[in-house]
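Box 3.1 A note on notation
Throughout this textbook, protein chains are presented in two layers. The first layer is the amino acid sequence; the second is a token string describing backbone geometry. Keep the layers aligned when reading.
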Amino acid sequence: MKRALACLALLAQSMSAPAPALALGVSHVFLVQNSGWMEPFYTDPQSRYKPLITELVMAVAQPGDPMVLAAFNQALPGAPSPKALLSFKFDAKSSRKQVGGALAALEVARKPGSLAYADTDLNEAVGTAIRSALGGKSGLVWLVTNNRNSPNNDLQTARRNREFYELIHSGSAITRALAFPLQMPVQGAHYHANGLMIYVFAVGDEGARQLKTLVASGAIAKVITEPAARLKPLDQDLVRLVPRKVSDAPGVAFSMTPTGMLRADVNAQARSPAASIEWHLENTIYPYTIASAQISARSKVGSEERPIRLASSSVTALAPGKSAPLSSTMALPVRELPGKWSMAAVGSAGSAYVMPGQIELQLTNQRLELSQAFRQRMARLFPGDPLPEIFTPPSHIKSSVAKLPLVVRVHYGVAPLVALIAGALALLGALGAAALAFARPRKALVTVEDELRTMHARAGSTQPIFDKAGNKVAQLKTTLFGHQLLDLREGAQVRLGR
């Protein structure tokens, strides 16, 4: 076991080495089971086991992604598990040959010094990959297995599966987990199998985001056409709201964008924008049936929240992939809407002022049950295997939240903008006229000792007035509104006008 840990630790160092191309890459660890129970997958000439793994690696990895390919069974002295087969940075041209070659040489493992086949320890394989290969960092761990978790040939598979279940649900390292049960009938010299399971475990918050993005991209679906069975989390996005009919109220119109966002177009004059919306409430958490749950909803735009009135406050027996009708009345926030004379409104004149938000649907007192169709399928693929119990929802999960992005677009007319522009132009005109008037010389008639004089002065100026002898007898002050005599000398004969 120490040798295995050392080997994977060295791989972890190569995976974490700094390189610009890996800044946004996803670290992948592929664990391929080769214990005795897997004998038919390796010996049946018709087996597609190894080609499937190769195609999966090629589908989900991107150039530059750090990769580890390892075989696993159960670690024993002299027989490490997991055992690294490859450590590399993915390259679309060379990686197919690398992976295919490593898998072609892989055989069913035997116990050291014995002809007995090696046993299996799923917990050991996944735990070692998280701790050592990923080195505690985010990434994706892929596990390809026939679901027989039996260390030391332990026949208590139900208990061992429960331990595996606890590793997934109780630990904080695994943030998201999916399972893909696949049909693959194979016949070996000793054993027969109907199918296998591919798990993918997201490690860390970034790993969860990477897995969601990977699923949404359709990369996995290029190889695995079966729907993903969700193991974790079971308290997020259990349902999806899809509007099927909207009765628009005056001043508001709802629509759904191609990306699944609900859009509300609101007229700025609307005082109480609201609408009645008929939804499809769809169960998106395969393979679980929502046996029962209480539901409530609210809208959030900016800092304002408003409850959404629902026609029904509960949902029952909603099978995975199925939907139920749900009527609602939704009011949009008015307090957050900018006034038509605000800068936000004026700046959005002729277009729309956009306010992001969301609709939250809360499920409480929820009770999930594994769908009967999934149980039957698992029984066909893994007869006599109690593994479906691993899909039992944790008892402490009683609530969940589903969120629908919402964007409110408030439409303002151009009248306020036109009025402001007109006012600004008028003000500019008045200021221009005042400037011209201020700068233009103004004529003033002044009589000094019966002599009529004509003086020119600009508004705001003050100039002296002298008598015939050259003595200063007064000052002439000129404003926009006329002329005024200042500092008139006592006895001087000075007046404005004739």
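The longest helix spans residues 415-439. The radius of gyration is 40 Å.
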